[in-house]
Design goal:
Length: about 350
């Protein structure tokens, strides 16, 4: 006869492919019921952002179906993003906070932050994107928005673009004017970004940082617990050296570095070969040297640059399938790294 115990035992042989831990230990099985020869349960994934969900469901079904007395297996797969560092600030709830940084300017932080945020949102996650680049807030242009919506609630309404909530420090300044806040004033501003806007309940809060190792990074790390930092570099040595400094800064701030993204890694030629415009594998070598994960490489793609300029981010653009796949894989890897942090404690 089929029992709950037997089903749980079978499910404890099924591993989450990212975390390499079984579904029962991960507390991913809920609402388990056994009725005669039918077993039903929910699988609670740690992120909606992964194609692996199909695989886990398949493995779970197979494990239970082989049990004596089992005829039907009903599985309801859902996702619930949880972080040990989740924090409530006022009425806002931030689960995973992801800071996207670099040492050098212009390496593609904002592009990566937008691609990551839009993809997480497209897969059903509740996503917020904060452009905290006080020197050159580019997100408004990249997303084709220039102001916040009207509203008279207790909090300031965020912009809503492609299913995510977006706020840019650029909304608060006049076109083209640089911000010259430093120290305490900047710190207050960053705190207000977290309290005064109606972020609501977020699974992922993506923060696009200015380049370098300055006040914004410090203020952000002091204002809320960051699950992890994604460090973007091009393969070029100058960029890699600066990225190494950024990693050291995150270490000092006790922000875990999720890993390195190598942007503008290569140009795909018409014959399919790769031209390494800025050198080869600089990002990967950096990851090895710093002892952090290598998250992936994004090709140099003219459509990405064009999309950033006309306010149409890579997701909605006709970027090459290689670029699109690279962003998808990167998003999945970052989501998996986030989930891992939830089980490292
Ligand atoms: N993979 C890519 N292929 C082609 N162009 C890219 C790619 N990634 C970024 N770009 C372009 O390079 C420029 C710089 O990118 P982006 O603004 O994302 O860099 P950044 O690191 O955020 O810069 P900053 O330090 O000024 O904030 C932009 O014009 C962007 O469209
Ligand atoms: Mg930027």
């Amino acid at each position: 006869m089929l029992t709950k115990e037997a089903v749980l035992k079978a499910l404890s042989t099924v591993l989450d492919p990212d975390l390499r831990v079984d579904l029962v230990t991960l507390k991913m099985i809920e609402d388990l019921e056994v009725d005669g020869d039918t077993a039903s349960f929910s699988i609670v994934l740690t992120t909606p952002a992964c194609p692996l969900r199909g695989q886990i469901e398949k493995d779970a079904r197979r494990a239970v179906q082989t049990l004596a007395g089992a005829k039907e297996v009903r599985i309801n797969t859902i996702s619930r993003v949880q972080s040990p560092k989740s924090v409530d600030i006022d009425t806002n709830h931030f689960n995973h906070v992801i800071a996207v940084g670099s040492g050098k300017g212009g390496v593609g932080k904002s592009t990566v932050a937008v691609a990551l945020a839009t993809r997480l949102a497209a897969q059903g996650a509740k996503v917020g994107l904060l452009d905290a680049d006080i020197y050159g807030p580019n997100i408004p242009r990249m997303l084709g928005i220039d102001r916040l919506p009207e509203g008279d609630g207790p909090k300031i309404r965020t912009a809503e673009v492609m299913g995510m909530k977006v706020v840019s420090i650029g909304f608060l300044v006049q076109d083209g004017q640089p911000l010259i806040w430093r120290g305490p004033m900047l710190h207050t501003a960053i705190k207000q970004f977290l309290t005064d806007f109606d972020w609501g309940d977020l699974d992922y809060f993506v923060v696009d940082l200015p380049p370098g190792t300055g006040d914004v990074q410090l203020s952000l790390a002091q204002s809320l617990p960051i699950s992890g930092a994604v460090v973007v570099t091009t393969p070029q040595q100058v960029s890699v050296d600066d990225a190494y400094r950024a990693i050291s800064m995150f270490d000092k701030l006790e922000v875990p570095v999720l890993g390195i993204v190598e942007n503008m890694a290569y140009l795909e030629m018409p014959d399919g070969s790769h031209l390494h415009v800025f050198g080869e594998a600089g990002g990967e070598h950096l990851a090895n040297r710093a002892g952090v994960p290598f998250l992936g490489r994004i090709p140099l793609d003219p459509a990405v640059a064009q999309g950033g300029d006309i306010g149409s981010p890579a997701t909605s653009l006709n970027v090459s399938s290689a670029t699109s796949e690279a962003y998808d894989a990167l998003t999945c890897t970052i989501a998996a790294e986030m989930s891992k942090t939830a089980f490292k404690q």
